[in-house]
């Protein structure tokens, strides 16, 4: 019976470390020990308190309404002071009116610039199209010229072949009587010479005897035994 599952009476003891163990996991270290605060420009409490959110909302609504009217072809609306007619409201309405006028002016300048850019783009496109047409026309003319030259050269070669290929129509060239005529071309009566007509050693393998390559499993009937008996015994 095994006693591996039972604890020992005297378990292994670790060495005593002076001051205790200093090993610890990185997950046990302190993290995020400093509190972060919003910096200026990150919608902190002071930034939000200094902004007039109501005025910004009204201006945004009026700009959206004027953009819609402009898209429909209607003139933009001007903001007038309403309500109780107090000085603060009049000042606020005048500010909004100025903002709207500046926005309309910027939109008009942007539209004029976009129209000028579109006109310049149209001019550049027309010029590029004209240049492309010119290049296409030049390439077509070059291709037609090359085709004409090839067709003329092919026609001349065909006429020369027709005039010289038939030996019955060109007997002088066929018999080799005219100077400068190659008699080895097709259409002549002469026979083309073989490449081995002028060699010195020709048909050297005609008288060679064929070697018998069969194997005889008998010492008295082998070729060596027959030659030996014919040479020394007979």
From TrEMBL:
The keyword Nucleotide-binding does not apply. GO terms for biological process: mRNA cis splicing, via spliceosome. The keyword Nucleus does not apply. GO terms for cellular component: catalytic step 2 spliceosome. Residues 1-22, 31-50, 63-160 are annotated as: Disordered. Residues 99-108, 127-150 have a biased composition (Basic and acidic residues). Residues 109-126 have a biased composition (Acidic residues). One of its GO terms (molecular function) is RNA binding. It holds the Pfam family Cwf_Cwc_15. It comes from the Eukaryota. Keywords: mRNA processing, mRNA splicing. Involved in pre-mRNA splicing. PANTHER family: CELL CYCLE CONTROL PROTEIN CWF15, SPLICEOSOME-ASSOCIATED PROTEIN CWC15 HOMOLOG. Belongs to the CWC15 family. This is Pre-mRNA-splicing factor CWC15. It comes from Paxillus rubicundulus Ve08.2h10.
